[in-house]
Amino acid sequence: MSEHDHDSERDTDERTTEMDSGTAEADDLTLDPWGSATVEDYQQLFSEFGIESFESVLPDVSSPHYLMRRGVIFGHREYDRVLDGLATGEAAVLSGFMPTGEPHIGHKLVFDEIIWHQRQGADAYGLIADLEAHSARGLDWDEIDQHARDYLLSLLALGFDPEEGTLYRQSENRAVQDLAFELGIETNASELQAIYGFDGETDVSHMQSVVTQMADILYPQLEEPKPTVIPVGPDQDPHVRLARDLAARMRSFKVTKAYASFEADSEERELIEAAYEALGGGDTKEPIRCVEAADWIADHRDAPDLEESLRAAGKEPIRPRVRFLDRNASDDAFTALINAIDGEKRVYEGHIDAFEYSREAATELAREIEIEHDGYGFYPPSSIYHRFMTGLTGGKMSSSVPASHISLLDDPEDGYDKVNAATTAGRETAELHRKLGGEADECPVYELYAYLLAGDDDDLAKTVYDECVNGERLCGDCKEQAAQLMKAFLEDHQEKREEAEELLESLDVAVDV
Ligand code: TRP
């Protein structure tokens, strides 16, 4: 489901049988927004699910990919962490493909994203989600083998470097399966039900394919934790959220800020901080007592539970600190952490308070100790999201509607014909078009230029856009040019696929067909 697999997204009628993570939440997410190219449709993803707009990190990307520059990549989760990682040479990129059909121009976006990050120095991973295709889509192994090979050839043809990077099939990666098993211990069925709409009828292998995907996502960090980006379509966001959660659940320690000995949640911490600041913070001679904060809260906020906790703590002074909470730590690791903390500290049953650490320094220390004691130390994986392409016939792009998409294996002549037959957002008559201009933002053919045909050439993309909206460029000519470019792209790509055959044979991914 995804860019990786437009169909399940797009063919609503097939959804119940086809959706892997077939899903309450993903359904909401994908009600129908992907058809159009306007940003507004993606807005709900920002507000409802906490995906952040890519624009906000774009200025920090050095030589951004054209998909970033053109807003095709529109959202992210914690991509700034990956940018920091790229700057210090410690970063990874991973995405996966369900081998349910031929790779098409929608998948190319993800291939390009992986390759771009690899060229920026990230450890790169491309995986074939064959277990998922088998369990969630019911494909047989012969079909899977054929498609797996086709995906890998296109990824290689587009420039993935297998010497530097890693390609694997889920079914053949023992380490991924072992990690999936471990992650399964932290995942329960009701949670999968809540996220994916699974129920009592959902088969166990389907559930296993979910923890397998979780393991895929964390696999780049198995040897050593590092910032990792997962480029996907927004339909995969439920997976990303679960993976981020699991990454945290696997940690030995959790580090939070704290102000007093009792436990407070993050909202309460903010209130305590507000009270502490309002009462003079660290500037007063006399310490600020918990009961004073309770009084302030009583006057200024509505938080009866917190007020009660603060009153119970009475005269205890409020002092900002960091707290190391024991999550999954062994006794040895907990003791080692106690010993490693410098300066003033207080040791409690399940946590340690330290007074001379910033939160960042504390987080790094906790990770170090965790790793020394055989923990994973995972960073929450980051993600970037790209827009779905509009179908060539308007509406949705679907692999089951051949005219709506272009397969990377299509005969170049067919590619040419499909583009020439594509729907455009031109006006009814040439005369009107010259007068009013076309609606490039709504046009599947303009999208082809922006997402693929113009490549790195921003001038071409901009010229097509400008000429269209000011009425100089008529749809017929525009399509002819696009069709030529598509034909040339397919010819070139397929030549490179042939060249990549030998390379693929030499790799140890089994793709015998
Ligand atoms: N579920 C993805 C899809 O439907 C495939 C996938 C498996 C994947 N493992 C992954 C995607 C890890 C990104 C990261 O296409």
UniProtKB/TrEMBL annotation:
Gene Ontology CC terms: cytoplasm
Keywords: Aminoacyl-tRNA synthetase, ATP-binding, Coiled coil, Cytoplasm, Ligase, Nucleotide-binding, Protein biosynthesis
Superkingdom, natural source: Archaea
InterPro entries (UniProt xref): aa-tRNA-synth_Ic, Rossmann-like_a/b/a_fold, Trp-tRNA-ligase, Tryptophan-tRNA-ligase_arc
Keyword Protein biosynthesis: yes
Coiled coil (residue ranges): 479-510
UniProt subcellular location: Cytoplasm
Motif ('KMSKS' region): 396-400
Compositionally biased residues, Basic and acidic residues: 1-18
Reactions catalysed, as given in the entry: tRNA(Trp) + L-tryptophan + ATP = L-tryptophyl-tRNA(Trp) + AMP + diphosphate + H(+)
Residues covered by region (Disordered): 1-32
HAMAP family registered for this protein in UniProt: Trp_tRNA_synth_A (MF_00140_A)
Role, per record: Catalyzes the attachment of tryptophan to tRNA(Trp).
Family the entry assigns: Belongs to the class-I aminoacyl-tRNA synthetase family.
Stated name of the protein: Tryptophan--tRNA ligase
Taxonomic lineage from the root: Archaea, Methanobacteriati, Methanobacteriota, Stenosarchaea group, Halobacteria
